[in-house]
Recover the amino acids of this structure.
């Protein structure tokens, strides 16, 4: 399937649900859906577009909203599903039931952006230390790293 | 009764600081758990404060083995954002270094696999040969680890006729020896007996858990970014995707050796067909607002960089997904139902990246199953206290 065929076919299958459908580059398709439509869209891609491989999930802090990008790969093209969730209520459904390999990426999104992934099979932290304070989400734009003051035992000489 | 065995973050069998928790029933692993973050450096956050050019050198330092992979994946995306196309000679040199890097990484891994399987002469042989390709890389780039070849719009160093001849000469030697290793890897009875049937991952599991690179290919999934998403020069080169259906560590050895032979072919094709012309074009300082998704087949599998730009000279967001992270869910499946003695072998078979980190020891009381974490200095103090109070101190006599 060529890029144009994929775009046309996605338009047919999703209709109104596809809020935005672009093909900026060779073999790259970007599709935007509303957050509640995410899991059905991912299921559709897996079953009918051979996109069984989830490369990763990227998160972007856009101020009022968080943008989540699910990068899928298939032999034909890399389809990215994009969805936006409000910063005030950051919640998204887990896609682990459809793509079991998504669990580590969802845990990463959860701790780095403070997005609650509902239904993730394992909600523990992935990268951050166990004593990391609650409510600190490093990849949000308003989070700044403050280097703790250096304590030299016995003082500086 | 089941026990939990902690392996790592610091453990002689692991080359990377990672914490694995094995629940065992006798010798058999019933459950495996993983804890990451011992080497987390906050690189994605840092990248948002650096310029496009500074980030080349930052991404190169994500990994010490596949340093060129991350830098290349990053510049591929930036070149798309800046809408520039590197000259063909520049691209050929860039991907020539990529393939040489794959050769050095696979040879390194073969040695580690031999070492973990208790076949140390294999380790010595492959690492001796790895020096050939390391010398070639040093000759081309001036460095053995971080080649610093990439820049936005091309590469930083050209290669001349003498260097081309040396590369071809080195590849001839390497091919001869790799064929010999292929014979060993697939036929030597004791080595095969040690690695066959260890760390099984079925084809369906590899697909479901999104495994990448040689791990997926050893389970019969022909997933190779160079073939499925032929970036830059790969649609002009003649090569095959190597797969194996044995789904175990043996398959991963075979796939990597076969890939070595494919890489030698590609290196020869690129050196012989090296086009004339410039190696770099001038790049603008800023990129237009936009986004780019870049995929690259690193020695360990698919490497993904997603970059969003906002019109300034710094990225809005740089997302990096290294291949090892993609293989962790599959590793957990491989470890289950295996033996404790196979843990280093299975874990090494996904070729995790080598790093270094902090020190902490978890002690588990064998009777109660209770855990306590002590720092290295505490442990050392306890040991000193103990030796101070031992009655034989100062009275022991040298027996001879």
């Amino acid at each position: 399937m060529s890029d144009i065929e994929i775009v046309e076919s996605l338009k047919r299958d999703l209709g109104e649900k596809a809020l935005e459908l672009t093909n900026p580059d060779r073999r790259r398709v970007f599709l935007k859906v509303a957050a509640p439509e995410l899991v059905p869209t991912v299921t559709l891609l897996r079953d009918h577009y051979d996109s069984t491989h989830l490369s990763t999930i990227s998160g972007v802090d856009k101020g009022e909203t968080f943008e989540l990008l699910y990068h899928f790969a298939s032999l034909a093209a890399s389809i990215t599903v994009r969805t936006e969730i409000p910063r005030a209520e950051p919640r998204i459904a887990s896609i682990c039931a459809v793509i079991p390999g998504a669990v580590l990426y969802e845990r990463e999104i959860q701790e780095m952006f403070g997005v609650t992934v509902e239904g993730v099979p394992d909600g523990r932290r992935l990268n951050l230390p166990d004593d990391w304070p609650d409510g600190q989400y490093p990849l949000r734009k308003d989070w700044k790293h403050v280097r703790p003051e250096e304590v030299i035992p016995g003082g500086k000489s | 009764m089941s026990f939990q065995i902690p392996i790592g973050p610091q453990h002689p069998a692991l080359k990377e600081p990672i914490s694995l928790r094995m629940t065992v029933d006798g010798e058999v692993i019933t459950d495996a758990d993983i804890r990451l973050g011992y080497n987390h450096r906050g690189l994605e956050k840092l990248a948002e404060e650096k310029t496009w050019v500074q980030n080349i050198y930052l991404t190169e330092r994500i990994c010490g083995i596949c340093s060129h992979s991350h830098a290349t994946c990053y510049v591929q995306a930036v070149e798309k954002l800046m809408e520039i196309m590197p000259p063909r000679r520049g691209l050929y040199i860039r991907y020539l270094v990529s393939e040489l890097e794959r050769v050095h990484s696979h040879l390194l891994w073969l040695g580690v696999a031999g070492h973990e399987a208790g076949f140390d002469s294999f380790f010595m042989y492959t690492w001796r040969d790895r020096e050939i390709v390391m010398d070639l890389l040093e000759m081309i780039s001036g460095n053995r680890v971080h080649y610093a070849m990439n820049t936005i719009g091309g590469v930083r160093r050209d290669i001349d006729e003498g260097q081309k001849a040396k590369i071809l000469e080195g590849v001839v030697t390497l091919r001869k020896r790799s064929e010999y290793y292929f014979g060993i890897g697939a036929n030597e009875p004791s080595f095969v007996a040690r690695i066959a049937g260890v760390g099984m991952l079925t084809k369906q599991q590899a697909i479901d858990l999104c495994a990448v690179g040689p791990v997926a290919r050893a389970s019969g999934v022909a997933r190779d970014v160079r073939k499925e998403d032929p970036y830059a020069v790969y649609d002009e080169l003649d090569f095959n995707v190597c797969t194996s259906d044995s789904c175990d560590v043996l398959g991963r050895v075979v796939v990597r050796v076969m890939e070595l032979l494919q890489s030698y072919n590609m290196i020869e094709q690129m050196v012989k067909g090296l086009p004339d012309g410039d190696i770099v074009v001038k790049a603008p300082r800023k990129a237009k607002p936009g986004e780019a998704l870049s995929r690259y087949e690193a020695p360990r599998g698919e490497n993904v960089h997603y970059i969003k730009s906002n019109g300034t000279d710094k990225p809005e967001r740089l997302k990096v997904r290294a291949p090892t992270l993609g293989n962790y869910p599959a590793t957990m499946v491989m470890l289950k139902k295996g033996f404790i003695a196979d843990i280093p072998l299975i874990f090494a078979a996904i070729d995790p990246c080598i790093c270094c980190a902090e020190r902490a020891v978890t002690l588990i009381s064998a009777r109660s199953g209770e855990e306590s974490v002590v720092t290295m200095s505490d442990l050392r103090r306890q040991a000193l206290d103990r030796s101070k109070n031992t009655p034989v101190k100062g009275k022991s006599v040298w027996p001879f």
Notes: Chain A has a mean pLDDT of 90. Chain A touches chain B through 36 residues (CB under 8 Å). The domain at 3-118 of chain A is CATH 3.30.460.80 (Beta Polymerase; domain 2). DSSP finds three helices and seven strands in chain A.
